[in-house]
């Protein structure tokens, strides 16, 4: 029990929060208390999730859901944090760092090596869930606009590269052909999902301004996304080695980390400037970086960019996940419609990714494992949903609390079922291979 003594102060947090008014805020001290609560809740939830062999991100989400719904027992202070501008900025920075880290895990060269199987799996893994998500929205939300239905489809397109890679690594299966297809397809369909997000957001923005997005304008959005991604990757691959070689001449501590973050934030700003989500730029910045770029730093004993960014992410990323969980209003599930939406969205999310496994080419490929490995939506699905909360049409939000809560439940369920299901499927495939031999 002694090792859990550090959790004792958490017992006092609800009591302290109960003494604060729901609108307590606007001060630096308020932000400090909010960060203390969020980080403590994130780490406690992450620890409990890991103990039951689940990704830590699941525990962080659940911790946020619990804290955000303490208003049901008379403690409204935590709910007030969801509208705090300072916490919101930190959460958005966490999103950028997260996508930057995910990008660092892959390289442009690895993406170019992805075969036809991974590409076809990725395309089917975007088109099928998008269509199913739109259908679910049209069936259960007839009172909402088609824009809301389209955005629901967009939230189902992505696959969580981080969660899938972590599961495969923990199972010791990352060298399998199926694992390479899963990870390659996950990277590609994240990019395709980001393009779809840009198109849907552009359509909504045009409608909000009283116009429509023509086919030409839609093609322009797609072209901007493609030009930005290809241009940023090509230019980054050419410039980043010189950038880091020049930075290596600077004296002082933290030069490598600062240089990497400058590249991340600059590309995020450029993406925003051309009408794309900033996370597209952060992801592209991570993709163009390779270990060889900072060899001048590592040769003199410094850590790599991935190692240096990790502590920054450990601080900022949980803020995003806990805040996203806080925005889930459990009272919305008291209505059968809310539960039905969450159930059908989850079903569409799972079935849609099983369909994409049909794109895996070749004999002897374990398509079931590929489909299961593509299920988790994780952080990318949450990012899509959080962007939807900020989109409005004639003063009304495209994604309201009920839709957002259903999406988060879908993310939680798909994240929860993947590790045990993928473990079972891969072990089943290994047994079949052994019998054939």
Overview of this structure, please?
- The chain is mostly helical.
- The protein has helices at residues 12-18, 28-51, 56-68, 77-80, 85-104, 108-112, 116-140, 146-155, 161-170, 177-208, 215-247, 255-273, 278-288, 295-298, 305-326, 336-356, 367-373, 378-389, 401-436, and strands at 392-393, 396-397.
- The protein has a two-stranded antiparallel ribbon with strand order 1-2.
- The termini are far apart.
- The relative contact order is 0.15.
- Report the C-alpha radius of gyration, rounded: 22 Å
Mean pLDDT: 80
Distance between the termini: 50 Å
Q: Strand order across the biggest sheet?
A: 1-2
Total number of β-strand segments? 2
Order of helices and strands: HHHHHHHHHHHHHHHHHHEEH
Search tags:
single chain; 437 residues; two-stranded antiparallel sheet; 19 helices; 2 strands; 1% strand; globular; disordered N terminus
Q: Can you describe this structure in just a few lines?
A:
The chain is mainly alpha-helical and 437 residues long.
């Amino acid at each position: 029990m002694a090792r859990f003594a550090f959790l004792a102060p958490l017992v006092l947090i609800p009591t302290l929060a109960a003494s604060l008014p729901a609108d307590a805020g606007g001060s630096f001290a308020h932000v400090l208390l909010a960060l203390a609560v969020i980080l403590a809740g994130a780490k406690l939830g992450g620890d409990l999730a890991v103990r039951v062999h689940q990704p830590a991100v699941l525990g962080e989400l659940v911790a946020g859901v619990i804290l955000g719904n303490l208003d049901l027992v008379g403690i409204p202070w935590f709910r007030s944090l969801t509208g705090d501008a300072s916490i919101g900025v930190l959460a958005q920075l966490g999103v950028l760092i997260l996508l930057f880290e995910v990008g660092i895990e892959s390289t442009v060269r690895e993406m170019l090596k992805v075969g036809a199987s991974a590409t076809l799996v990725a395309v089917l893994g975007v088109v099928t869930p998008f269509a199913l998500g739109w259908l679910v929205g049209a069936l259960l939300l007839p009172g909402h606009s088609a824009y809301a239905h389209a955005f629901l489809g967009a939230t189902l397109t992505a696959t969580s590269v981080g969660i899938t890679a972590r599961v495969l690594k923990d199972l010791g299966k990352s060298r399998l052909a199926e694992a390479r297809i899963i990870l390659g397809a996950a990277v590609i369909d994240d990019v395709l999902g980001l393009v779809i997000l840009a198109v849907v957001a552009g359509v909504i923005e045009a409608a909000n301004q009283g116009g429509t997005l023509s086919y030409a304008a839609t093609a322009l959005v797609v072209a901007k996304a493609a030009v930005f991604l290809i241009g940023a990757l090509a230019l980054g691959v050419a410039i980043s080695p010189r950038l880091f070689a020049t930075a290596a001449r600077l004296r002082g501590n933290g030069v490598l980390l600062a240089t990497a973050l400058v590249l991340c934030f600059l590309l995020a700003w450029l993406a925003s400037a051309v009408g794309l989500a900033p996370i597209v730029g952060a992801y592209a910045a991570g993709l163009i970086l390779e270990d060889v770029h900072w060899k001048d730093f590592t040769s003199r004993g410094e850590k790599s960019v991935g190692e240096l960014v990790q502590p920054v992410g450990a601080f900022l990323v949980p803020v995003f996940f806990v805040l996203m969980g806080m925005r889930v209003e459990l009272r919305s599930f008291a209505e059968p419609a809310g539960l039905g939406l969450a159930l059908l969205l989850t079903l569409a999310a799972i079935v849609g990714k099983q369909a994409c496994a049909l794109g895996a080419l070749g004999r002897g490929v374990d398509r079931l494992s590929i489909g299961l490995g593509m299920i988790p939506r994780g952080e990318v699905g949450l990012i899509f949903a959080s962007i939807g909360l900020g989109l409005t049409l004639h003063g009304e939000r495209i994604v309201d609390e009920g839709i957002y809560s259903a999406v988060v439940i879908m993310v939680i369920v798909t994240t929860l079922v993947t590790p045990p299901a993928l473990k079972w499927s891969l072990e089943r495939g290994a047994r079949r291979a052994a019998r054939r031999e």
